[in-house]
Amino acid sequence: MNLSILYRGPLASCNYDCPYCPFAKRRDPPELLRADRAALARFTDWVAATTDLRLSVLFTPWGEGLTRRWYREAMVSLSHLPHVQRVVIQTNLAARVDWLADADRAAAALWTTYHPGQVDRARFLSRCARLSELGIRHSVGVVGLPAHLDEARALRAALPDAVYLWVNAAEGHRYTAEEEAAWTALDPHFGFSVRPHLSLGRPCHAGETAVSVLGDGTVRRCHFVPTPIGNLYDGSWRAALRPRPCPAAVCDCHIGYVHLKPLGLRDVFAGGVLERIPAVWPAP
Ligand code: SF4
Ligand code: SF4
């Protein structure tokens, strides 16, 4: 059986200062960092021991994980496990990436986001070039704020065609048809992001073949439905996995609606669901 796990530990700090983010320049106290490290070690031990499943893992920290050694080590060690299909982390790519030379490139991948104003474009692109040199699969994205459009265009022009650039609709921003067309010219799948998906009562893979796991092992269907369905470390999650309709009115985040069955996005992103790389890319 295949199971995708979105893991989020207690870490909630970031080295960047994005104006659209609650974790900007937040610092975690040492005891929280120790707790995050211990929770991640427990999780990676569980993954290593759970060999009856084909696992795919996406680390979705609040804030930035790759500035912490324990996330880099987890990426490398999990990538070498034969029953781990893919291990991915969402990152701002501020940290150097040479450590990925030790990872299995068939399994390790990155979901990277460019934050104009926080990092020079040339510096971000040099990190992307290093990832390509290392043969590490990665997507690159931007938040589709009007002020980011010129930077996003320049980024798209500078990236190799083989690298997919995704655009997330900015929260609270309503796009005119002209704006939507401008962003769609950069990301042909922007249409999935620009309007929230009505999900209430609709079937979703979350809770069946994808789950969200917190640092203490709490298992939920997804990051957006708070009700726990079990715990990873007492095995109670196994009996909880089954098809169910979504209880939320809307689903507006890619890491959620990619699992919403009627959208068919698991086919669009087949082979790259967690790192957000379409199956057919570059687009014909
Ligand atoms: S890089 Fe990401 S986590 Fe950090 S401040 Fe920006 S949006 Fe928030
Ligand atoms: S549609 Fe979204 S909110 Fe609803 S269960 Fe699926 S991932 Fe969760």
From TrEMBL:
Write down the SUPFAM superfamilies for this protein, in alphabetical order.
Radical SAM enzymes (SSF102114)
Highest taxon of the lineage: Bacteria
Q: What name does the UniProt record give this protein?
A: STM4011 family radical SAM protein
